Predict the structure of Phytocyanin domain-containing protein.
Amino acid sequence: MGCSMAQRRGASSFFLVCVLVAALAAPRVCARAVVPTRMGKRYIVGGPDGWTTPPPGSKDMYAKWAAGIRFFVDDSIEFVYTNDSVIKVDKFGYYHCNVTAAPSGDGSALFLLNKPGLVYFSCADVKHCKLGQRLMINVEAAPSSAPSTAPAIPAPGSSIAITPATGAPSSSPGPAPEEASSTSAASPPSSSLAHGMLLAFSATAVAMMSSILRE
């Protein structure tokens, strides 16, 4: 038996509603599918000078270097050095040059900044630490847009005693940070899934309308 006029009108209305919903949802779904994700950056600590004992009068060498960069989660920092060492410490160890854990002394050490907050690093040699070979950086949550210039991080307090170092390198600090290649990148999601879902939705609506019209 053929379908009545009321059924035909109802089926047509249902089909039009389905098409309208799909048309309205498509731009939003596709827009979400192509939003880019920020790539983690990799920084060489100290720029071209690397990780070394600061020369006389440059105790704040690494504080100035860190002040020129805004660090985010998923960034990484690399310490490059010769006949030296580096170790990650806590706040007390940073300010008092209290080193207890085993240092990394193979010429290069890479650290991933995987959570927001302050992180501290120091040379395992207490004398070098007191001369300024230590680093404090503030890691921020990953932003949705490109980072801007960071505020300065205060240098270590002047109450720490300074012990003369022997054989300190004569290299001068570099004013600008050196940024190496990216270490992590999240690929933007494809929009093909969104298009497939919309096509399937439209096909289902057409099939339902055809079924009603055949009754």
